[in-house]
Amino acid sequence: MLRLARYNRWAFQVKYPTKAPSLLFSFSTSAAESAPPIRVGLTESSGRGVFASRRIGTGDLIHTAQPIISHPSLSSLYTVCYFCLQKLPINSGVLQNVSFCSKRCEEKSKGLKYPLLVKRLACQVISGVVTPDVLDILQPEILTSEKVSLMKKDFALLRRNLEDSSIESDQMAFVTEGWYTAVLARIRINAFRIEYPGGSYEDLLSLAAASVEAEAAVGNAVYMLPSLYNHDCDPNANIFWTENVDAQIKARRDIEQGEELRICYIDASMDYEARQNILYEGFGFRCNCLRCESKD
Ligand SMILES: C[S@@+](CC[C@H](N)C(=O)[O-])C[C@H]1O[C@@H](n2cnc3c(N)ncnc32)[C@H](O)[C@@H]1O
């Protein structure tokens, strides 16, 4: 999970509903027939969380999820579809100069190409795909006043960028400093880094190139339901991507009804101190999982 956040004390006014979202879930036919075996509820000490509503077996697909917003990483701009992040075909060793894998993806993205999730979201709102408050339900990062000042500079750039694109002022009336910081505060702690499992020769080549450029991810995306999963350093569920931006969540072991489902936000092979530091510095919380409580 991409977590760039620093979690400091600055009273940030947010709309933060506790109602579970009911949109943007999609369910595979191999998952439960009608609804996934989960419910969203309150945990004792980690805010909202996702719980098993019935027993789930090891390896079961719990649900899949489509993103609210996504964008390719800069090194993948021309190698994956700009909308669904699926790898683009390679033609005789030369990458085709296309950015969408299909007409459908091109139409769904309305042809818009912006490198940042927040700009992408602004464009989606302007083109009527989503409403400006679509991310309000997600937990925001708590921002320092210094961070907000920095964001304001970026905000001015975004406004200028939209004005330069000849977008009518009433169409972008929602693009205020308040909207920008609130959206970014959510993106920063809820965006996932999308990496595909390496397999083919091309995958290995691009992985090698990516490690030189320190960017193995094909892109980033924000989802609704997956953002409600809390972290565990020994998780009982995994989130992963196989060929495009659609996420899959699977059980890593048998899970009893009522048990909280948790995924791992970081590299769980690190030691206790390193994990705690990364989770605190980057994600803004002290991990309360069993593994951390026993300082393993
Ligand atoms: C992506 S959100 C997860 C959903 C969140 N609990 C909510 O109510 O929206 C990440 C936030 O959940 C809390 N959290 C997640 N895992 C945690 C853990 N292992 N220990 C303590 N807090 C945790 C932290 O506040 C963290 O910033």
Record keyword descriptors for this entry.
H3K4_H4K5_MeTrfase, single chain, four-stranded antiparallel sheet, Beta-clip-like, SET_dom_sf, 26% helix, globular, alpha+beta, 296 residues, SET_dom, binds S-adenosylmethionine, disordered N terminus
Write structural notes for this entry:
- This protein has 296 residues and is α+β, with helices and mostly antiparallel strands.
- The chain has one domain: Beta Complex (Beta-clip-like), CATH 2.170.270.
- 26% of the residues lie in helices and 16% in strands.
- A hairpin with a 5-residue loop joins β2 (38-42) and β3.
- α3 crosses α4.
- It is globular.
- The two termini are 22 Å apart.
- Bound molecules: S-adenosylmethionine.
- S-adenosylmethionine (SAM) binds at residues 46-49, 139, 189-190, 227-228, 230-232, 283-285, 287-289.
Break the fold down into its secondary structure elements and pairings.
Blueprint: E1 25-26, E2 38-42, E3 48-52, E4 61-65, E5 69-72, E6 90-91, E7 94-95, H1 103-108, H2 117-126, H3 145-164, H4 177-190, E8 191-194, H5 201-212, E9 219-222, E10 230-231, E11 237-240, E12 247-251, E13 260-263, H6 272-283, H7 290-293
Helix pairs in contact: 3-4
Bound molecules: S-adenosylmethionine.
InterPro entries: H3K4_H4K5_MeTrfase, SET_dom, SET_dom_sf
Protein name: SET domain-containing protein
Organism: Penstemon davidsonii
